[in-house]
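Hello everyone,

My group is preparing for a crystallization screen and wants a predicted model to guide construct design. The compound we'll soak is magnesium ion. Before spending weeks at the bench, it would help to have a computed complex in hand. I've included the protein sequence and the ligand's SMILES below. Output in structure-token form would be ideal because that's what our pipeline reads.
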Amino acid sequence: MTTASLRNVAIVAHVDHGKTTLVDALLKQTGTFRKNQAVRERVMDSMDLERERGITILAKNTSVHHRGAKINIVDTPGHADFGGEVERALAMVDGILLLVDASEGVLPQTRFVLSKALSRKLPAVVIVNKIDRQDARPKEVVDEIFELFMDLGADDIDFPVIYANARAGTCRATPDGPDTDLLPMLDAVLERVPPPAAGGEHLQFLVTNLDHSDYVGRLAIGRVFAGTLYKGDQVMRIRPDGTQDQGRVTFLYQFEGLERVECDKVEVGDIIALAGLPDVLVGETLADVDNPVALPTVTVDEPTLQMVFQVNTSPFAGREGQHVTSRALRDRLDRELRINVSLRVQPGATPESFIVSGRGELHLAILIETMRREGYELGVGKPRVLTHEDERGVTEPYEQVVIDLPDEHVGIVTQGLGPRRGRMQKMGSIGGGRSRLEFLVPSRGLIGYRSAFLTATRGAGVMNRLFIGFEPWAGTIPHRTNGALIADRLGKVTGHAVDILQDRGVLFVAPGEETYEGMVIGENSRADDLDVNIVREKKLTNMRASTSDVAAKLVPPTRLSLEECLAWIDDDEIVEVTPKSLRLRKAILNATQRDVLRKREKRQEESAG
Ligand SMILES: Nc1nc2c(ncn2[C@@H]2O[C@H](COP(=O)(O)OP(=O)(O)OP(=O)(O)O)[C@@H](O)[C@H]2O)c(=O)[nH]1
Ligand SMILES: [Mg+2]
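Reply:
Good plan to model first. Here are the tokens for the complex, ready for your pipeline.
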């Protein structure tokens, strides 16, 4: 038996540099789709939210056939929140396709993924993608890539470079052409990436990812590093702590194009999925029962951010969603844990609440967004970063932030990051009236920063973030300085009330929408909270202006996205999430109770200090 006709590669890059688009083209050009089969764009981005947001969230496996060889390909996500997916993908492969955008060049995640690949001594085929861009600068970008390899201490900088337009499905050997199809890229893979090592004779399979099928339950995804695995085999499960127990493999699947294809036997070197072990976890080895030897484990990234998810207790609970009980919430989170490997869920302060920890704002926002779509209602509290303690004292997550922006916005962005405890590391011109700034910023200071950044740069700035580790606590970071405008009673928002109150701040609601006591309907222009009557009717006696006159004067409400809502709320506030609505509210809805509590806190503060 031989592995000579097998290759395992991962496609890695900074976010949006074109990985999934390239996989599309490779699948098409290797005849993986039927002739005339309608295939949508970025077909590997199969989750609804991946399609809507245009990003890859979960690493996915496929394979293509080329010159008699089978090439297993892992498409990885580029967004920094999902870096752990990339690291685990790298544990399955013998080489990488490193994509770099021909205009954007080397960015933080390019460095991150390449450093991880080099630490595993994986050879690379470099693809300079999007050469069709107007602002493409392929030669400079190749220089940047060489510099990056040297900077990271690569032993081998003799990597092939291919210039591609993944969207058109073409590539060339030199920046100036001529164009061919993408098959030379696969030739380069066959040449450059070694076949899998044969390994010992006894089975060793490393679990690097999880999936779930409604028919067979949990699926363990990974690579056979030694031996042969048959459907029905009894295997020894070895956990990272060394404990062992046995299980039986009930189904085996290979990845072929977009399908998981059932099979009876898999050989050493192949990347496969298997079923039969309902509680198997990432990092475990499945080994020969009589000769159980563990492989080096893979670790899952530690969470950096957490939020409390709780049952929706607003007066409108259950109006829009089908799943509203704490039992439903717990079951849903349990199900998520089966496949979302860097997620953690702990019991909250009450039986109705759960502490959910993840890799960043996007990681958790995507979960919330997915649950909404499935008909769940929930309340979500203010995101907070996880802290650790070591010899340096309390530490918190920090990120490297790289910003490209027009020169005239450098001042405002630098000022904006100051109070967020950002420390500038580098600043330079990148030509064309644009600058590149690099900062080190605590993740805490970056919560909700994206929209402020886009406003500051009028949409012309690009910001990239990369988690770099836990560093000493940065001190206080001011949160929202404005108070909330709070509805003081149940009812429908009236145009008349909006007309009166819109000078008080920024309103989040429009006439006709329903509110309840304790619901936040706007941001006060002052620092304190203000209870207001937003459902006030105009007295009929002094009706003068017609309704259309009033409507004409009304400022349209500000609508916050989920991420903006989460960034906006304070400790005593909750985002109410339902399939149809996002509402902000006070944790304590009753105005009198809130008042009593506030006074008590004030007394305590005074007596304390
Ligand atoms: N002009 C141009 N656009 C491209 C090319 N390749 C991809 N794109 C576009 O770039 C955008 C991002 O492409 P994706 O394939 O989703 O990028 P990705 O690297 O998979 O993104 P993540 O998985 O989220 O990191 C899409 O709008 C593509 O159509 C190319 O060669 N030229
Ligand atoms: Mg992608």
